[in-house]
């Protein structure tokens, strides 16, 4: 049996199945990327709920795995060369899991880089911009009277959505076949309406390709399970 005791995080979130991938996460758009990927790939894993409270993400235990105090993070007991591998940053984890299994990242070098460019599009653009949109539209930032921050992120969200709408014209998935790029992107698109209640201001309801894309994504059984892993309560 794999010994994960050298990882301090396991003292606070003990591994009941140390031979499985240990997932430390919460069901946010970034968090569900990894639970959905693990479900899609059929990899055995054990999910640990790490809330967004400082008591969890800024605890010494969690910081020992991710010094940037953000979910998700994993420990793969069967990492490269058979040694346990700790890993944080959702994009890096997605690439690692795809390469580990040889799935969801294209079958040729050209396809791989097409997937990676759209993954980077999500990581560098959609995630940060939509996150700020949520803060200024739905959360504490909405209390700020100055409209400029909110308007900036609404405008940028609309621009990014127009890029996605155009890209999806005639395509089911963002990089051709279903891939980790979709697993990274689609949860953020669904979040605009589901959690941020920003469907009207962003115009996402008027984008038929994006709407159909979200529906296709959410219809997948692995997505339905991953959306709620780990459970909020």
From TrEMBL:
Coiled coil: none
Domain GST N-terminal: 18-105
Keyword Transferase carried by entry: yes
Domain of life assignment: Bacteria
Keywords: Transferase
GO molecular function terms attached to this record: transferase activity
Residue span(s) of domain GST C-terminal: 108-233
Family annotation (SUPFAM superfamilies): GST C-terminal domain-like, Thioredoxin-like
Family the entry assigns: Belongs to the GST superfamily.
Protein name per its UniProtKB record: Glutathione S-transferase
Species of provenance: Meridianimarinicoccus roseus
